Amino acid sequence: MSEAAKVDLVGVGLNATDTLIAVPRHPERGSKVESLEVSVLPGGQVASAVIACQSWGLQTRYVGKLGDDPAATLHRQEFAKAGVETQIITAQRCASQQAFILVDPDGERTVLWRRDENLGLHSQEVKREWIVNARALLVDGYDTAAARTAAGWARETGIHVIADFDDAYPGIEKLIENVDCLIVSRDFPSKLCSETDLKKSLPHLQRRFGCGLTAATLGTDGVLAWDGTQFYYACAYKVSVVDTTGAGDIFHAGFIYGLLRGWPLQQRLDFACAAAALNCMAHGARGGIRPLEEIQNLISTGSRYPRATSF
User: DSSP readout, 134-197?
Assistant: First the structure.
């Protein structure tokens, strides 16, 4: 078997087919609400981040599992069109992961999702050569054992490991021990250390697991990061929001892009915030992935939300 090609980023994690349903208001229990628009688009945390990095000129690889349905064909076509190398395992007689996303007039999304248990990626299905021939690894932790195996190989070979976690999946602590940059949702730290104050929980997680960086994304409140010595903060950018689906995915992509370019941490956070904001100006997890020039222009000329006063 030939050796896997060298890439900048390998992503091991979720993909999804998103059915976006625009609604005039969030439905109340027992109500009927007419949808304004329905569209079906590819998404998924790691898959979308990999697509974004590829669009900015990085060489990428995606490792994951799909069913054998038309949605799988859509995903394969999107990866091929973007130029992403794929190592996809097919689950026979199985539907690919689906998400039904309600998007209100403010662009806020509510996600309902379904994933067949046969879509679970197993450790033995991941090959070491897919991981170690990269400069960085992104995991979302859903298939925790497979992600832990990949992160262990990456750690052994000095590859950056970046995590995008929004839930404390069983066994995730062992995975975090091999994570360099732990970038999570606002409420994730409290699930592991029962501390709601991010200025206490982020340092706690950094000390407990030995991560180089712990950070929490905060929506319009921006992002707060701890590097083991000091806090870094970046305000979110003000844009005309259409759909917040995928904002966190593209934030992670922006952070990884800056990391692999050797940028200082503050520059990485600002770039990631700008990339995420622009993605919110279009429908879908990947609809607003913009060229580097537009992201830099927003950083230079865009307005930002005020600095958050509490976390």
Answer: EEEEEE--SSHHHHHHHHHHHHHTT-EEEEEESS--TTHHHHHTT-SEEEEETTHHHHHHS---
